[in-house]
Structures are given as structure tokens and as C-alpha cells.
Amino acid sequence: xxxxxxxxxxxxxRENFDKDDLLRFVVxxxxxxxxxxxxxxxxxxxxxxxxxxxxxxxxKKSIIIKMLKANKSxxxxxxxxxxxxxxxxxxxxxxxxxxxxVIGTDGVIDLLKSNKTKFVIFAEDISEKSxxxxxxxxxxxxxxxxxxxxxxxxxxLTGLANCSVLALKSSSLSNSLAKTIEFYxxxxxx
Length: 190
Ligand SMILES: [Zn+2]
Prior knowledge:
The structure is a single chain. This protein is α+β, with helices and mostly antiparallel strands. The protein is built from 7 helices and 9 strands. It is globular. The protein binds zinc ion (ZN). Zinc ion binds next to loops.
């Protein structure tokens, strides 16, 4: 029997969601609000869903700090962005080690043709032509794709020179990374 999902309530909209679909915040012993990316910090968890309005209110307008009566901070957005960025880099590294990552145009297209990926990451500075070529297959197979980081950053993360695209083979870590990226995009959006 599959385990029943653990649901938690978003602090802003008060709706219930699967815990995996939420960001978890804790208040540390010094009374500062912290994003708990691994959702394991030994403190009471406070959750935010990935609705843009909830993210806007809770993080960008710092409502979470008031709700939790924590110390004021001008750097909440930056610190959340930084934590999510670090988590994304670490997850990509782990997926690479576990051989769950396919890097480069030809490999990504092969993986898409065999329907073994649900998530593709394009560099923000990939050529339009290359992106269109790959999007032919992502659209066909209803694969989610995002533009994230530039080629230089993807090169650093994957070790492949001039890396402009990568695909995640389906796995639970890939699913979790896709969710983290979705939050990251919304938190970094102006
Ligand atoms: Zn919400």
C-alpha cells in the first residue's frame, strides 16, 4: 500500500497540500526565520505553498516574519533565494553522480524520444534555434521545461563544456528538484 501523503497547511491561504509541495520555514533559537530546505530541522514547521500570491505575501512582503513574531530582516528574500539555489546545485550534483542526468542536445533529444524524462532545463542563454529543436519533443511528450541559470553556471554544475541543456531522468529526486526549481523561479521573479 502506498503511504498516504502527509498534508500541511499553507500559512497564507490556509489550504492543505502534500508536504512535498510546500516550503518549510522554521524559527531558529536566535528567533530568525529560516527556510528549511530539507524539511528536517528540529523545530515547528511553518509552510508556504507555491501559489505566487502566497510567495509574494509570505516571503517578498515578509509576512511570515510577522506571523511568527520573529526578528525583522531585510534579507529574507535573498536568503530564501540563496538556500533554494544551493539546494538546486546540490540536487543536480547528486543526480549527476547517480547517473540520472543527461547533458547536451543529442543526449537530451534521445531521452525525450524514448519518453524517459519529464523535466528539461535550458540555459537562459541557449540559442533560440537549439531550444526550438528540443521543444519540438518536449511539447510532443508534454514534458515540463524551464530556463534556469546560464551556460557558464550549467557548465560548472555538470562538467560539460558549453552546457546549454540537460534533462532529468524520472526519479523521486528529479521530482523534488523540479518542485524546488518552480519555487526558485517564483521567488526570484521580480
Ligand atoms: Zn498558499
